[in-house]
Amino acid sequence: MSAFIVEWLNLIVRWAHLIVGIGWIGTSFYFIALDLALKKREAMREGVYGTAWEVHGGGFYHVEKFLVAPKELPPDLKWYQWDAYLTWVTGFALLILQYYWQADVFLISPNVLPMLPGQAIFISMASLAAGWFIYDRICKSPIGQNTPLLGLVVFALIVGAAWFFSHVFSGRGALIHVGAFIGTIMAVNVFGVIIPNQKKIVASLLKGEEPDARLGAIGKQRSVHNNYLTLPVLLMMVSNHYPMLAQHGQTWLIVALIVLSGASVRHFINRHDAHDPLEKFAWALPVAVVALGAAIYLTAPRTDPGIAGMEVSDAEVLTIAGKHCIMCHASRPSHEGFDAAPKGVVLTSIDEIVRHKEQVLAQAVHSDTMPLGNETGMTEEERRKLGAFLANH
pLDDT for 260-271, tens place per residue? Predict the structure, then answer.
């Protein structure tokens, strides 16, 4: 299949992933905010937990929430599930197109762990499945009854997964797998717990039985987990565009800081929506800012003291570029994966290399993101020479 067709497939699937992902996350944000806005009022109907009045688009809405289910259900009951399912399906399709299709380029790094594409793909799929089962067992254990402890253990699970992925895959492959790991947990929460529990409640009601309130409580717990994980997973999904996130060899720590920052922001918003006193949740924003600041500090490029005074000629730089760069970054790439230079970056002359200095430093000097999968075997000495040359231009 030509690179042109693969690029269009990638774009179409990515577009679909964004559309359904926005729908799913928007639903999560809305229903958590709605849940927190509910108030007990006089003269509520039997079985109603609370109600909320809202205004939007020129109209007013009056919403009631039943903790279990009313005695009668309308035939047009709205279920929210397909956005979650399709977000995972399109995300996995992207994983196939971007990382499995060219595993030796995007997923495998010989500097991290030499392996065959089939081995990398097996590890990828097995780890995503294992992540869900471990998470689910944790939630169903006694730990699941202690919300702070459960949050801490799930946090440790995600950070542990990040450590594992960073010792198996390339930098960008590790970060995207953290996103897929979290996204899989979120999607299966909907598919395997929330929707089945809701269907069991409806089935009990139709049989004239008293629904099990515990099923609703479990569904609510998983829904809240999904809500707190939305902001971290969004950043992980765009992480492949930012090589500085994986350039320092401590991917697990960056992931920990991102999860802490995103979850803290989400907590602040949720408690604000619940109209809690500000002093009870004001701590969340400083925590998010400190965590994000720490991530920025850790990912800041470090100047290699060894390049001071290093003399590198134009000819040496062109030789390095010719060996490792221009098979992709030329007006007519020779690499089978590209029909045009990625992002329009052409590196066939000294002027072009200097013009794209910041991208070259970020991708090939301060990190080993380029060449892709280091398939040309670019050495650390060559990276240092390139960095020394660009430091003087």
Answer: 999 999 999 999
